[in-house]
Every structure is written in structure tokens, then in C-alpha cells.
Design goal:
The protein is of the alpha+beta class. It has helices spanning 25-32, 42-48, 52-65, and strands spanning 3-8, 11-18, 21-24, 73-74, 78-80. A five-stranded antiparallel beta sheet has the order 4-3-2-1-5. Helix 1 (25-32) crosses helix 3 (52-65).
């Protein structure tokens, strides 16, 4: 899973590259994995110790199956370091 950070209104968000485009994982994980509180930054994800590749894949697959993935795609993101 290719992860990245990008600028969203008011904060940095974590994203993942999917075949459909860039998925806003910060927002999407709140829906598919509400108990996970570490999706607000790449550093928080690393510190949490979760298997983010697995979790992100599950998240994307679930949203894709429900027909809601398009809601979480980011158009023309401003990438951050």
C-alpha cells in the first residue's frame, strides 16, 4: 500500500493510492474503523503499531463494495513531505 500525506482544509491528512485515485484515509478510517484513533497523521499511524496496509485495504475494499469510495477520493491533492 502506498501511503502519503496531503493538505486538507485546516489540517494534514493521510491518503492511500488506490486504482480509483487518492483515498482520504483520515476521513475513511473514521467510518470503517471508528475505534482506531491514530489516522490523523502518518506519525500517529506509525506509533500505533497497527498493520496500516491491511487496515487501509480493508477500508478501501469496504467502501468500494458499498459504492461509497468516490466520496473519499481527493481531487488534485497538495502533497506534503
Amino acid at each position: 500500500m502506498k501511503l502519503l500525506t496531503f493538505q486538507a482544509p485546516g489540517a494534514a491528512h493521510v491518503g492511500a493510492v488506490a486504482k480509483e485515485g487518492i483515498v482520504d484515509l483520515t476521513r475513511a478510517l473514521r467510518v470503517t474503523h471508528p475505534a482506531f484513533k491514530g489516522g490523523d497523521s502518518m506519525l500517529a499511524i506509525i506509533r500505533s503499531g497497527v498493520d496500516i496496509d491491511r487496515m487501509a485495504a480493508e477500508c478501501i475494499d469496504q467502501l468500494r463494495e458499498e459504492g461509497r469510495l468516490k466520496t473519499y477520493l481527493v481531487e488534485d491533492p497538495t502533497y506534503l513531505p
